[in-house]
Amino acid sequence: MEKRITKGKKGKVPEITKRDEVYVGLDVHKVNVHAAVRINGDEFTTAVLPAQPKAVLAFLKPYRAGLRQVVYEAGPTGYGLIRALRAEGISAEVVAPGKIPRPVVQGAKSDQLDCRKLAEFAEKDLLREVAVPTLPEEADRQLQRLRDSVLDRRRKAKQKIYGFLLQHSLAEPENLQGWGRKAILALQKIPMSKMLKMTLDFLIEDLLHLQDQMDRINKELKELEKDERYAAAVARLKTHPGVGDVTCMQILTELYQPERFENSKQVAAYVGLAPRVSQSGGTRTEGPLIRGGRGALRATLMEAAWSWVRRDKRAAKVYGRMVKNTGSAKKAIVAMARRLLINLWYMMTRKMVYAPFAA
To answer: Which pLDDT score, from 0 to 100, does residue 358 have?
Structure first.
């Protein structure tokens, strides 16, 4: 009869062979890493480690012969640890936090409990891993996300100026919505008290700084489009009506490694454009969108979908039919954005240009 490994004591690691099955769950934070080890279906030990790849690798070394998988949740610590583990030949995955099984009634929660659950779920194959970007993919995506962040801050800076004018009963200059140079100069010439003038000058200075940042980021993204990794894909995606530079780069950087999606439903769910389906017996209803993905990408796809409908008669016909069927222009444009996303995914994976569909 094969000897069964029982729960270990601190510092006592049994001899692990290839016949053993070892699963490790990690709860990774900035300062430390909580680890839980399961061997042959039983919890063996837990530990608290420094948040350093070398410390984690040293902890895992005695279990390497039977080590099946190491898992931890995607989070603010990024992908440095998993890259270090994989570089040493360890089977490791980062898992999606939103896809981890949760009890209906939440009980106690701690870092130690979290890593123990991760190890158990990994052993039972209940976790869904996320695709780990390469270092260049991650850097490119970060630049695109920086643009999204600056764009949002610039929008809020404009809202602050609008609010300032409204609060103090100051008339808006002509063409302020365009936010051109003439509109900014007109803002600065509005008569007001010294203190109000100082406040407005700071708000304008903040806006101009953000506009300068946006120009610099857009210039870098324009150069990135010409990179050999993106140039051909950008040219193909631009053949789709309504799709421009911003949509291309956002799709290409957020949907890195597009071949990892098995079907269009997975793509829509990843971006957050999949409806929540409820089916019972012969009744099937579609509810609100399932939460997921980045809001900035969905917003860009919505804008591109509107542009598509305006430029393509076939798309306009489909949109009109959806409005009639749903009774909602908002639902119809969301459906068109989902269609647009799936079209772009097919074009990326099949390396094809846009082909008009039959309405």
So the answer is: 47
Neighbour tally for 355: CB within 10 Å: 10
Looking at domain 22-123, its CATH superfamily turns out to be Ribonuclease H-like superfamily/Ribonuclease H (3.30.420.10)
Give the up-direction half-sphere exposure of residue 78: CA atoms within 13 A in the CB hemisphere.
12
Q: Which residue has the tokens 């995607």?
A: 74
- CA-nearest of 229, 269, 230, 254 to 148 is 254
Q: Among 156-160, 175-179, 233-237, 255-259, which stretch is predicted with the lowest mean pLDDT? A: 175-179
Residue type at 5 in one-letter notation:
I
Are 300 and 234 spatial neighbours (Cβ–Cβ below 8 Å)?
Answer: no
Could you tell me the residue ranges of all domains in the chain? 22-123, 135-225, 233-350
**Residue 229 per-residue DSSP state:** T
Residue 5 clears pLDDT 70, i.e. is over it? no
CB count in 10 Å sphere of residue 341: 25
Residue 267: its H or E element: helix 264-271
The reported pTM is: 0.84
Neighbours of 21 (CB within 10 A): 15
Q: Look up residue 345 and give its two tokens.
A: 């995914």
Rounded CA gap, 147 and 254, in Å? 13
Question: Does 282 have pLDDT greater than 80?
Answer: no
